[in-house]
Specification:
It is a single chain. Strands 1, 10, 11, 12, 13, 14, 15 and 16 form an eight-stranded mixed sheet that branches. The longest helix has 19 residues. α7 links the parallel β5 and β6. By secondary structure, the protein is an alpha/beta fold. The chain has two domains: about 130 residues, Lyase, Ornithine Decarboxylase, Chain A, domain 1 (Beta Barrel); about 240 residues, Alanine racemase (TIM Barrel, Alpha-Beta Barrel), CATH 3.20.20. The chain is built from twelve helices and 16 strands. The chain binds pyridoxal-5'-phosphate (PLP). Pyridoxal-5'-phosphate binds next to α11.
Length: about 375
């Protein structure tokens, strides 16, 4: 997001800090770019990336589908369906929502049974649970795929071994459930595009074999992982989209429905954070800037998302390697211990962090009594 220094200062003065600014034009632009470069792929926004209701609203208005991980995330989308008649509501949920959490508790399964929801699974016990509590579901079997080099790996917790896939499909079928397709997740912020080509190859083999055995699979869900340009030399989404399009054409029959679950790609570049220096100190010779946001709040991605944040000062000065730390009384609350910033910053100076829209405020807490950043929306309709 490109806001001038004077505009950032003006917004900070008007609304206070920490201030988390979301530009909805960028959310819309990201969604449209995704659709343009992957035109045959139905995009389910992974609400977990940033569950702010206004973001969900903007994407809902754009016509996005949604990937939800819990009943509460489901209800966030459902809020926007309240004016639909029952038939439209059922159709929307059936067509545009996927429960992508491979493990669901039975209470959730019972509550969503009436909607014939699409959901993922990756193990035997889940088949039994779904058959008992949500036999109307359409199933997507999630496969374990390589996630080498991705910022956040996924395959250590999720995904069936491809060698177990046919047995799981058979088990689901024998339990009276319909397996509609296969999915994978190559890891979040996947900059190693070979993960996608390997995952598509693995998926295509299982898909072809299952169809050969008479199981009517029709959906391939290519998950999330689409990278955003945190660095100027980050591999580009456009290149990845070309690879995915070519590989899908080569590997899957024409009647295959392709879907995806992009999260970070929609939200990351749409937000900027303005924080403020509330204290300075020299500790063992190193300059510490204590700011009013930290890893328990908007910078939670440093912990949960392995994110390396960026900082920019709005005052110039000789650069010095310093630490930037959060406001809580916890020594773990260090955002960066090696940040190059002007050494002459003072209490009250502002720091700006770009591309902080995903996996940030979604996992913010109120630890130590700090409320976290105020959220400001720009360009809502
Ligand atoms: C099942 C699932 N789908 C989609 C996503 C979104 O991934 P990303 O933000 O990398 O696009 C996640 C994120 O971890 C996920 O767990």
């Amino acid at each position: 997001m490109k806001l001038s220094a004077s505009r950032l200062k003006e917004l900070a003065a008007r609304h206070g800090t920490p201030l988390f600014i979301i530009d909805h034009d960028i959310i819309r632009r990201n969604y449209r770019l995704f659709k343009k470069r992957l035109p045959g792929v139905q995009a389910y926004y992974a609400v977990k990336a940033n569950s702010n209701p206004e973001i969900v609203r903007t994407l809902f208005d754009e016509g996005a589908s949604f990937d939800v991980a819990s009943y509460n995330e489901f209800m966030q989308v459902y809020t926007y369906l309240r004016h639909f008649n029952p038939q439209e509501k059922h159709f929307y949920i059936w067509d545009k929502i996927i429960f992508s959490n491979t493990i669901k508790d039975h209470q959730t399964l019972r509550k969503i049974r009436k909607y014939r929801p699409l959901m993922t699974f990756d193990n035997t016990d889940e088949v039994g649970k779904i058959a008992r509590h949500c036999d109307t579901a359409g199933l997507i079997l999630r496969l374990k795929v390589p996630d080498f080099g991705s910022q956040v790996e996924m395959s250590s917790k999720f995904g069936a071994e491809p060698g177990d896939a046919l047995a799981l499909i058979r088990q689901a079928h024998d339990a009276g459930l319909e397996v509609e397709g296969l999915s994978f997740h190559v890891g979040s912020q996947c900059t190693n595009f070979e993960n996608y080509t390997s995952a598509l190859q693995i998926t295509a083999e299982v898909y072809a074999e299952a169809r050969r055995l008479g199981y009517p699979l029709k959906i391939v869900d290519i998950g999330g992982g689409f990278p955003v340009p945190y660095e100027s030399d980050s591999p580009r989404f456009e290149k990845l989209a070309r690879i995915i399009t070519a590989e899908c054409r080569r590997l899957f029959p024409k009647d295959t429905e392709l879907i995806a679950e992009p999260g970070r790609f929609m939200a990351a570049t749409a937000a900027v954070l303005i924080s403020e220096i509330i204290g300075t100190a020299r500790r063992d010779g190193k300059l510490f800037y204590h700011i009013n946001d930290g890893v328990y709040h908007s910078f939670s991605g440093v912990v949960y998302d392995h994110w390396i944040p960026n900082f920019r000062a709005l005052r110039t000065g000789r650069q010095e390697v310093c630490a930037v730390v959060g406001p809580t009384c916890d020594s773990f609350d260090k955002i960066s211990t090696a940040e190059s910033l002007p050494g002459n910053l003072r209490i009250g100076d502002l720091l700006v962090t770009n591309n902080i829209g995903a996996y940030s405020i979604a996992s913010s807490t109120r630890f130590n009594g700090f409320e976290g950043a105020r959220v400001l929306h720009l360009n809502t309709l």
